[in-house]
Amino acid sequence: MGTKTSIGVVVSVRGSVVDAKFDGPLPPIYTVLRAGEGGEIVVEVLTQLDERRVRGIALTPTQGLARGMEVEDTGGPLKAPVGKGILSRMFDVFGNVIDRGEAPADIQWRTVHRAPPSLSRRSTKSEIFETGIKGIDVLMPLERGGKAGLFGGAGVGKTVLLTEMIHNMIGHQEGVSIFCGIGERCREGEELYRDMKEAGVLPNMVMVFGQMNEPPGSRFRVGHAALTMAEYFRDDERRDVLLLVDNIFRF
Description:
Elements: E1 6-14, E2 17-22, E3 31-35, E4 41-48, E5 53-58, E6 70-77, E7 79-82, E8 90-91, E9 108-111, E10 128-129, H1 134-139, E11 142-143, H2 158-172, E12 176-182, H3 186-199, E13 205-210, H4 216-235, E14 241-246
């Protein structure tokens, strides 16, 4: 657990919504709170109800959390790992590795709540991002630095198309691909990891998952964790980054 700053008490638990009361200074918005034995229950502060109470969303299951239990203010926000050490690895929303490997070395931790670049730093140059897929490059070209959505029903091949884009991005553009799985099934994540490893593109790829069995708060924040990783490679490493989010409907 983080450095102890203040201790509060849980006053209400409604699903993933948790209210806590503090006699001392209130935790700022986006501060991470921990409760339960060993601090296994994680809550992120979203609003200050009054001068003594805060309301947060749980990022972990709240089974066992009850009124009157102590909650600890960790003094900081949710953070994500960044650095070259995260390449080829698979993470959850808290930055824990979930690929059964050792924890990565040579990494930094950055808050997932970062301000966007100022308008003066953004490029006004318009350039086509070549995916290597003729159907997209000819009929629906993507802009470098832009955003695009891919919509379709279940089983029509969205994930297969994204996988091909990852392969081409790493093979032709020499960039980094960040795959953010929101609400994905465990089986789908395992299959993607195996496919990317067999294709030889894993060394230039990072995967972050908020799985289907995880609370809504975890699935919501995993997108911000992936963005933090992508911004590191864009701003610090000066590399092209392809950020893929599957599935935005579960965000």
